[in-house]
Design a protein that fits this description.
- By secondary structure, this protein is of the alpha/beta class.
- Helices cover about 40% and strands about 25% of the residues.
- It contains nine helices and eleven strands.
- The longest helix has 27 residues.
Length: about 300
């Protein structure tokens, strides 16, 4: 009999590539993770992991077992959801990991709506960058992730996740007032900014990926001179003439824009796509369902295009 808890451990090691990182994600000690993996190998009669430099990789047998593990863990999520639905009443806490703008645009309004539609559901909000919420979800530290598409993100058809699209928003060009394109009308071509110094998020931030993709499609690599993950700082640097930037439209709300020009751009790639995700099977949970519905309703009322 294969222990499902050990399958979760195998999945964590496959995701994090080291026993130490998997242990941290599971709130276990590395020795406890090693013991669970050794027991799983004994249960299956196969070697599941092999050394790979400083980390580990799955053997062929480990990859086969991992495919089944994803199905088993998703089915367990469904079983827990059905049992929870069987109980009378809906009351409990749901942890949601989301990036700051997502919190402001859809999560905060969803909390207000849930107070009326599902008062027994309590939300615990964790502020996480757009590329951090999905690992938190898969590691069990969050029940719902509000995330954005980025390079290296789990694919849309990843069997571990169920996704709910929320909204897509364009990036706008932020220019110093003295820039030649600052006073024009209508969208500008990203290629027109090819020779400029750029201000942008750090690598690893999903918005960094969007900027790079839009510029690469326009035929150039942006010369990133200044880096900040705080869009207020990005706008302030642009206002000082330090460079140009592409910024998500919603991130400009409430920001002082009197010393910059904001122009739309003609690139469809300069778009941030936001979605909610849960572990596969958990979308049926009676605590999760109303939260997803409230997030979807909040996103439907947005005007970010």
């Amino acid at each position: 009999m294969i222990d499902a808890r050990r399958l979760r451990t195998l999945r964590a090691v496959a995701d994090h590539r080291t026993v130490t990182a998997a242990a941290a994600a599971l709130y276990l000690t590395p020795s406890a993770v090693s013991q669970q993996l050794a027991a799983l190998e004994q249960e299956t009669g196969h070697e599941l992991l092999a050394r790979d430099g400083r980390g580990v990789r799955l053997t062929a047998a480990g990859e086969i077992l991992l495919l089944h593990a994803d199905l088993v863990l998703a089915q367990l999520e469904r079983a827990e959801a059905d049992l929870a639905a069987y109980r009378d009443g809906v009351e409990g806490e749901v942890t949601v990991a989301a990036f700051a703008t997502g919190i402001a645009l859809v999560l905060a309004p969803a909390i207000g709506a849930l107070a009326q539609t599902a008062p027994g559901v309590r939300l615990k909000v964790l502020d996480a960058e757009g590329d951090a919420s999905l690992p938190m979800l898969l590691d069990g530290r969050a029940d719902i992730a509000v995330a954005v598409e980025y390079r290296g993100a789990p694919r849309a058809d990843d069997r571990r996740l169920t996704r709910v699209p929320l909204y897509a928003e364009p990036f706008d060009a932020v220019l110093p007032l003295g820039h030649p394109l600052a006073s024009g009308q209508g969208p500008i071509a990203v290629a027109e900014l090819a020779t400029e110094p750029w201000i942008g998020p750090y690598p690893g931030n999903p918005c960094h990926d969007v900027v790079l993709l839009a510029c690469e499609y326009a035929g150039f690599q942006p010369r990133l001179v200044h880096s900040s993950d705080d869009f207020r700082a990005v706008v302030a640097l642009a206002s000082a003439g330090a460079g140009v930037a592409l910024v998500p439209r919603s991130a400009l709300r409430g920001t002082e824009l009197s010393a910059v020009a904001v122009r739309p751009v003609d690139s469809a790639l300069a778009t941030r796509r936001v979605f909610a995700a849960v572990r596969a099977g958990a979308e049926r949970h009676p605590l999760v369902r109303p939260v997803l519905a409230a997030l979807t309703a909040a996103a439907g009322s947005l005007a970010v295009e």
